[in-house]
Sequence to fold (448 residues):
Amino acid sequence: MSTPAGSFSTRRAALLAQLAPGSVAVLATAREAVRNGDAEYPYRHDSSFYYLTGFTEPEATLVLVAARGDRPAQSILFCREKNPEREIWEGLRHGPEAAREAFGFDAAHPAAALDEKLAELLADAPALYCRLARDEGGDAQVRRWFDAVRARSRSGIVAPPVLRDLVPLVDEMRVVKDAGEQALMLRAGQISGAAHVRAMRAARPGMFEYELEAELLYEFRRNGAQFPAYTSIVASGANSCILHYSSNDRRTQDGDLVLIDAGCELDGYAADITRTWPVNGRFSAPQRELYELVLAAQAAAFDAIRPGNAFHAAHDAAVKVLAQGMLDCGLLDRNTAGSLDDVIANKAYTAFYMHGTSHWLGMDVHDVGAYRDTAHADKPSRPLVEGMVMTVEPGIYVRPAPDVPERYWNIGIRIEDDVVVAAGGPTVLTGAAPKTVAEIEHLMGETR
Fold:
């Protein structure tokens, strides 16, 4: 389901159209990273670089030169040269010429030629767009380019007088997903949903959390996903109240809830699903009560996701339902917390719900893009538009405390789905994972 090469060319053209005439933009992919000794982490390309190129090899840089007068725009790739000896050890390298043809660049050069070529391209350019203050190595490279251009000043050559951050331009392009991206994310959601189903079916009291994690990872890879999109959270019992729990080494016990937050990455795009369910297949009465509350909060958040509504509207809707439920069930004492309006105004609900309801989703799990309305300073939350993809993940987390009803202690619940903003209401990408009490108990009952 990989993205057609033409899509990357279209994105490069759209970015070039935003640059000042004659200016140059530079974007490098991620570096390889050593894990320990001489072993490296599995390589994963930079998301924005891939978004514009489709190229997944390390040691690569994209250079864009905006049109100016009768000089047309250019997209140039710098990448590793062919090297038959290294390819025996590391696998295929496209090399510049094959990469140019396969990915639709106007030109391609060896990575070693980058500094020399940039010194030429930046001569008399009105601006350089790049990642500003990313790391010392990148900043030093930019200084080298400028020094090389300035060394020619006696010939009348000048370095770009303007240095601009490229990141906000690319980030904003990535916020709205095209049809191809949405299709990839739907498939990632389907694979991830199947993995959650597999874990539910395999679950038995006494299993270790990592055994359930293994079921997830098997299903991801079996269906062609290249990686987990993030470190899977498999949290049982009291661990379900730890938001970013990742040890996954506890033995589950009869009566535990298991909260699994896990999704795969497919062709560069992430899924992000959370489901919470009883390891023995049956919700207790207190577990069911809080679960139904979180599910109702998610439904309210879905109703608030419409083009034109503020991004924050989904969170506000979920909070209203959760806060009322906390008052109704006694998690919050009306005598001290006050009315629903008081609970919301004073943020008393954050004792049991302390995170946001949504974030952008795409190539990165917490995807790029502004959440504020940058065009209107008086509006703290940007309006939604069709094609945005976001998570919807209300939750409730009850730790033991003297003023908290004991029947709810150590119950942590989160329900998370991925949705595309659409005119008729959000399109759910992760519906393959069951989430109602009846669906979960039926599914888990089938294997018992």
Observations:
- Residues 5-174 form a domain with the Creatine Amidinohydrolase; Chain A, domain 1 fold (CATH 3.40.350.10).
- The longest strand covers residues 74-79.
- Residues 179-202 form the longest helix (24 residues).
